[in-house]
Amino acid sequence: MIHRTPCHGTRLMLGSLLLAGLSSTATADASSGQAIDYQQGDDTFSGYLASAPDEARGTVLIIHDWDGLTDYERQRADMLAAQGYDTFAVDLYGKGNRPVETDAKKAEIAKLYDDRERMRQLTLAGLEEARQQGAARPTVVMGYCFGGAVVLEMARSGQAEDVHGYATFHGGLGTPEGQSYPDDMPPLLVAHGGADSSISMEDVATLSEELETAGATYEIEVYSGAPHAFTVMGSDAYQERADQKSWTAFQALLDEAL
Fold first, then answer.
1. How many CB atoms neighbour CB 256 within 10 A?
2. What are the pLDDT digits (tens) for 134-167?
3. Residue 159 phi, psi (nearest 5)
4. Which residue, among 208, 33, 67, has the nearest Cα to 143 in the 3D structure?
5. Which terminus of the chain is more exposed, N or C, with fewer CB under 10 A?
6. At 176, phi and psi to the nearest 5?
7. What distance in Å separates the CA atoms of residue 209 and residue 66, rounded to the nearest whole number?
8. Angstrom distances, CA of residue 198 to CA of 53, 72, 218
């Protein structure tokens, strides 16, 4: 099923660690990152760049969930920058387009699920912008919920150059008809909640079969009792144990890939 990757639960305030509102292109905020406006065709997008304080070990491209790019992705970007990675949170919706109502969120992701070429183009545009801003070229692409489905789309396409790994957290796992995984795909980490009511264990098993058929290198971690959106700090779905374990697994992927 393609359209079942919502992040459940209402986001709450994440406290002083989260970032204040962002303004114009390359305007620094109170944290380590900055808003970056960029163009794709006639449309303007607003990403978020957090640079490593010293020479970067590589770059992480973050793909947002169905809320669009919010404080959650910015916080993750800051965390990764502090660990030595240039990090760019891409915007797939367009500047100022941050849906609040559930139906509006569904409509936004449906546009991209129904136009896979545009989904890939917008992701590649974000990656190119990160590199134009000086981010290190070797990259790992990661995403949450809807963003996880985009990660897998990019992994199947093989269109992004100098990508050394992929990671998806409680993401959509379905493969569109006619697509498959290449045998030379960089390593993939799949972090999944065992109590996820949106993405089933049947979906996990099907993905594993597809990856085995392709001869891909991958790891799938399933965390007991973790619901959909288990990494979203401050939400009803947050599970600290699964969040910490999946973050540790992601650090291992980064160490291996970058």
1. 14
2. 999 999 999 999 999 999 999 999 999 999 999 9
3. -80, -20
4. 67
5. N
6. -60, 150
7. 27
8. 38, 20, 22
Measure the CA–CA gap between 137 and 126, rounded to whole angstroms: 13
Residue 73: closest CA among 82, 63, 83: 63
DSSP assignment of 126-165:
HHHHHHHTT--SSEEEEEETHHHHHHHHHHHH--STTEEE
For residue 204, which amino acid is it?
V
Distance (Å, rounded) from C-alpha 143 to C-alpha 122?
Answer: 14
Cα–Cα distance measured from residue 109 to residue 2, given in angstroms and rounded to the nearest whole number = 10
Residue 111 carries which side chain, given as an amino acid letter?
K
Contact at 8 Å (CB) between 252 and 220?
Answer: no
Contacts of 114 (CB under 8 A, 6+ apart): none
Confirm if 242 and 228 have CB atoms less than 8 A apart.
no
For residues 34 and 74, the answer to whether their CB atoms sit within 8 Å is no
Tokens of 160: 């992004």
CA distance 72 to 98: 13
- The answer to whether 89 touches 57, Cβ cutoff 8 Å, is no
What is the C-alpha separation between 12 and 235, in angstroms, rounded? Answer: 6
pLDDT in tens, 178-212: 999 999 999 999 999 999 999 999 999 999 999 99
Cα–Cα dist 99/161, whole Å: 31
What predicted TM-score, i.e. pTM, was given to this entire model?
A: 0.90
